[in-house]
Amino acid sequence: xxxxxxxxxxxxxxxxRAGLGxxxxxxxxxxxxxxxxxxxxxxxxxxxxxxxxTGFRPKxxxxxxxxxxxxxxxxxxxxxxxDLCDSFDLRAESCSGKVxxxxxxxxxxxxxxxxxxxxxxxxxxxxxxxxxxxxxxLAFLESSLRRFALNRHxxxxxxxxxxxxTDAERQDVxxxxxxMARFTRCSxxxxxxxxxxxxxxxxxxxxYTIRKHDVANPDRAVCPYLSAPLDEQxxxxxxxxxxxxxxxxALAQRYRRTRGSIxxxxxxxxxxxxxxxxxxxxHNPQFDLPNADETILSExxxxxxxxxxxxxxxxxxxxxxxxxxxxxxxxxxxPLLGPRRERDLFRRYNYLKCLADRLRRxxxxxxxxxxxxxxxxxxxxxxxxxxxxIVRANLRLVVSIAxxxxxxxxxxxxxxxxxxxxxxxxxxxxxxxxxxxxxxYASWAIMRNFARSVPKEKHQLxxxxxxxDEALNIAAAMRSxxxxxxxxxxxxESIESLLAQLSPRERTILTDHYGLDQAQPARTLDQLxxxxxxxxxxxxxxxxxALKKLRRIVKxxxxxx
Length: 561
Fold this sequence. Notes:
mainly alpha; 5 domains; elongated
């Protein structure tokens, strides 16, 4: 069922459907009568609508005292007529005057059923009645048709004029269209427009005539390129061109298609990408509540009214470090998020993605609805805005942690770039419902990444340095010596004294793996395992135990000193 455009009309429709059955037919007639007086460019208060439909003047309430636009009100009134008819058995013979269903009205007016649907979109009121055969069908009153045709006489005649085309006229249209397609290579749209101007027919009439001929005569088609659909490669090319800013009319001209077919291809590709796109979010039971939209997405729930916190304000205005480039220093001008603002942003971010994922699962690539695609894309855009606010407020956290990990093979900007990736991943996985602050969670995520990536980069360089340089690095890692102050002989003597306290196997593994013996290059864990007759995993375990033992020795010596 199509939703109402005005929320008060949806509430009023529910009340009228629940009313007495004998009154509902009067509500349907009143809705059609009101439809005739509503101007699409005007505005109408809720109290006026209720009075016109029920004859009852409601008490004025600020909650419902809103003005509705005439265009949306007309659409809601036509929806209301159908909803009321569906709520009880309204028989066709109970209506005054003649009643037509879609098929009989099309025969009477000598038009197609598609034209009848187009008239409905133009404002022809319809009801859903039970006919003599017991079937409930869409129906139109003769009086409704007369009022509709009063100001649209020329348009209705033009729609019916298609049936009056003679065979000679159709053949002439096909002949001229084939000549234009052969010598000018125009699109079907351009051909239809030119012939419509020359013959005085409607563009839809010319286009339909050509299409009908091509379907019936594929070997002599005027536009044979329209009979075969575009393949997936061509569809992808059309979509990529559209994303780069090429307008649909230009694409229609390039591929010799109608603009409508180009838009259908674009929407199909949009739907396909949305269906294939993973939308991950952290679910919360609040997302399933009936009033979730109002609770989570309203302005009051955005956390903007968080009370002033002097400590938090001072923290957000922390002094900028003097040793940072201007770009990085500017990050400290972005205020930190308070606890409530942070929680509400994460809740909003995940709920918006939850809504987008629910709508995405309903997409049918074969029957794409543009409003549905726009709704999903809008939800994802709003989610990205919330995510960007979270990320901007925490970029300084990445800088402060990256500064503490300097001194290795990676520079500051490389560390910050690596940390930003960890920050983005942390935003995706953070569960605000656990009550923790995001800065704590993100800090651990960034430091864990540095703990993995920095040693990895270091190990890649270790394979190309000498044993002396490796000795400096190991001693510095143990935090026992400063490589800038201790000379190499003293350092190597100290390392050898430490290694002497290990077992022979532990000493061999550390010495060979880190290349501490200048007589031979460093060995990998696999090579050590083959040499000692152990597995690679067992070599790793012994190495970890040996390093832990060395750290305990260094720590105890530092304490005694």
